[in-house]
Amino acid sequence: MTWVAVARKDFHDAIRSQTLWVVAGLFAVLAVAAAILFSFLALPGSGDRLTLPSSNRMYNLILFLRTPAGWLVPITALLVGYKAIAGERESGSLKLLLSLPHERRDVVLGKIVGRTLVVASAITAGFATAFLIGLVLYQSSSPLLFLAFIAFTVALSTAFVSIAVGFSAFTASASRAAAGAVGTFALFNFVWGGVPNALYLLSAGSMMPATGEFPAWFVFLQRLSPTGAYEGTFLLFQGSSLLQSKLGGPVPFYLSWWFALVILGLWIVLPSWVGYLRFRDADL
After folding, report:
1. A cellular component term (GO) from this record (predicted)?
2. From CA 161, how far away is CA 15, in angstroms rounded?
3. pLDDT score, position 140
């Protein structure tokens, strides 16, 4: 399985170039700062954060980390992945790599796995630090909550690494791959949230429903982006009561937390597959 060799080399290169340590440091700083800041904030509806059960404090810490993670993870994954193939293609090292017994699909898959391991290691180290701080500050153990949170965040990072490597495989230029990565981040973190609102305005003639209850398709469109799907996975922690009140009825299966994971899975597979198809037939 030569993709394993490609992934291993990519990961070891990240260690030697200190990329892994820089990324891990970013996540550690984020986690420590967020955990300490959170310890000084009174939680909604509590009046006194110290009166909350310890499991609730750890749960709310996870929700507190969700927003910065939803911004930092895509940026980091796209930066780590966009030069994976296009950069080596420009430098000429890709021809050397392909002169070894590696198929082009092995290169694409190995690059995705190797770059994902870099980001996933940083995420795990950073948020494990937050968990340890939670143990000290809140006397809370809740390890399964944090393991699920880390797993969902790693899935988000894998989706954006796949998008970045897909762009890198699709184009021969690292600058065009970078433009694709920047455009992807702007689309999903600035533009996509307005798409359901615009469609609702066109269909209903208003920005907000009079009842405060949105149709299921509105929430589903929000979930179609990688970051939206990541938000959807938190139903596992929150339960469906808030979403039921937003919809004014039962939650359909395609808005459940596990279906959000399916959407993330599609983002992991499809961009890299499209990039591979172009890369497979490219004249190097």
Report:
1. plasma membrane
2. 18
3. 64
Distance in angstroms (rounded) separating the CA atoms of residues 168 and 279:
9
Diameter of the chain measured on Cα atoms: 65
Residue 193 three-state SS: coil
- Amino acid found at 86: A
Percent of the chain with pLDDT over 70: 92
Q: pLDDT tens digits, residue range 131-152?
A: 888 788 776 667 888 899 999 9
Distance CA 206, CA 237 (A): 32
User: What ranges in 40-103 are assigned the alpha helix state H?
Assistant: 54-81, 86-91, 93-99
Token pair, residue 49, equals 């954060």
Q: What percent of the chain has pLDDT over 90?
A: 46
Give yes or no for residue 234 having a pLDDT over 60. Answer: yes
Residue identified by tokens 């190995």 is 110
The span from the first CA to the last CA of the chain, in angstroms, equals 23
